[in-house]
Amino acid sequence: MAAIVGGDQRPYPAAAPGTVLRNTTLRDTLLAPDAQPRVVADCEALVDREVAEMSGVTGAAVRLAYRTVRTFDAGHIRVMIESLLPDVADALQPWWTAFTTDPGAAAVDFGAYLARREDEVAEALIGITDERRKFSGRPTIVKAYNTVRPSAIKHVKAALPGLGRLVQQHAA
What pTM did the predictor assign? Predict the structure, then answer.
């Protein structure tokens, strides 16, 4: 049975759980109707863990801001993850392709693979929100983003091992 997913509306064949569909993209796999809700829930849990593990003054500020967002709009984080997921999948695609076709990569998980390339991967991911900032019509949000942007790269790098394992769990 074929399912229609992704922006290009290409059908892909159904596969047994744990099967890597080599002719599909991360976008197709992670946004498939049966996978996307689980991927979003796991991403939300990853964000929760990453925020909880932040330390110092910056960590306290991030935890307070995160708690405030959760209090005033409990679904906001989920909605943002759903919104960003297609672009994140596209941004990670080159590394996923390299990882799944590199015989030597079998010795590590995708999280470790991304962590070894943290500078370029983190910049690619931050580039997604940088691009959105350019087109935002919400000056308060842009100002807040600009305030945290310099330290964001550090937090994205710290999250790469968990993000990579999450992607591998759902795409492999």
Answer: 0.80
